[in-house]
Amino acid sequence: MEISNERIINISPIDDEYLCPICVHLLWKPVECQNCQRVFCKSCIDKCLKEKPNVCPLCQHYQEKRCSPLLYALLCKFKIACENKHNGCDDILPYESLEKHQQEQCQYQMKICRGCQNNVLKNDLDQHEQKCGEITIECKRCRLVYKKRETHEQLDCVMNMMNQSNKKIESLEKLVENLQQNVQKLEASINLHSLIDWLSSSVAHDVPLSSLASSWNIIYDHPYSHVTIVAELRALVAQCKKQIMVGAIQGSSSMILKIAAMGPLEILSLDSPLNRPTTFGNVNWYLTPSKSFGFAPSSTTINCDRADYNEKDNAENRLSWQLHGGGGWRAGTAKYLDNNSEWRKIIMTMKN
Ligand SMILES: [Zn+2]
Ligand SMILES: [Zn+2]
Ligand SMILES: [Zn+2]
Ligand SMILES: [Zn+2]
Ligand SMILES: [Zn+2]
């Protein structure tokens, strides 16, 4: 705090020993350098020490000490005019009570209005703020924050509340929409999972490709008249992930597997002795080079010569493609398909 000489009322001229050598004003909250015994305002010497730690501006070796009680007692004799004299404060305070007066008690200090941000005498602040048009108010009903100079009629208030409700409704509607989409996705994945469970345990019929599209890829799609050879099947292994599905579609644009079964990738590497299939899940799989490739339910035997021709036992659950130079032969009960170009041989693999 810089107290200029003209504010000191009762003592003049002021002896140098009461002046801070740094700011050359009346000492304020003084401390002493133990080395040179000179006294400084606490704030002045702290500023110096921040730039050059431990360096006294007078003797170079600063060591702080409380100033003597005698000096303090002498300072307390000073009577000082309030810093707000120019605003109208006529108070003259003793040294010890100056700070408290100026900071807490003086009604002539300047305060900043919370609305217009102008300086206003503390004395007038309440009155000013009551009238100041820039003061903000929050409406208790609609929570709108507005300036006092702006009007907030009842109609504005109702409109505002309606807008807010509409926004809330909109966001709730979006939420519901998202939830519905998630439910649909969940339902689809539940369907898919039960479908896969079913497929993996036995032979399935009339499976829409759309139900498999999200997790399965077609890697082999040829008409039954196409001649499948062992090397072709073996070559598919490189493209396959763990599970494969083998089936048949009737019609070049049809999207429905009339018959299908699912099993592990090893199926494509089988080297089955004639009529001795390997069971995976509830399905018997065989890949007998020079004879045929296909599946039948695990509870049945297969009767392969060129292909599985069994007619009586579970005929609808058998699929068989020739591997000796002819086309596919059966898809369920549809047989003699080796020259057929309507039926398609399908092999799929799981995407992940
Ligand atoms: Zn000073
Ligand atoms: Zn010193
Ligand atoms: Zn004052
Ligand atoms: Zn104001
Ligand atoms: Zn309102």
* DSSP, total strands: 19
Shape: elongated
Main sheet makeup: 5 strands, antiparallel
Strand order of the largest sheet: 10-13-12-19-11
Walk me through what this model shows.
InterPro entries: Znf_RING, Znf_RING/FYVE/PHD. Keywords: Coiled coil, Metal-binding, Zinc, Zinc-finger. The protein contains six helices and 19 strands. The strands form six sheets. A five-stranded antiparallel sheet has the order 10-13-12-19-11. Strands 14-15-16-17-18 form a five-stranded antiparallel sheet, with no helix packed on it. A three-stranded antiparallel sheet has the order 2-1-3. Helix content is 26%, strand content 25%. Strand 14 and strand 15 (283-288) form a beta hairpin. Among the domains are: 5-81, Zinc/RING finger domain, C3HC4 (zinc finger) (Herpes Virus-1), CATH 3.30.40; 204-350, no CATH class. 24% of the residues are buried. With 352 residues, it is α+β, with helices and mostly antiparallel strands. The chain has helices at 42-51, 69-75, 98-105, 122-131, 154-201, 230-236; strands at 30-33, 39-41, 64-66, 79-81, 92-94, 110-112, 119-121, 136-138, 145-147, 204-208, 216-223, 243-250, 256-264, 278-280, 283-288, 292-297, 319-322, 328-331, 343-350. The mean pLDDT is 92. Bound molecules: zinc ion (5 copies). Residues 33, 35-36, 38, 56, 58-59, 62 line the site of one zinc ion.
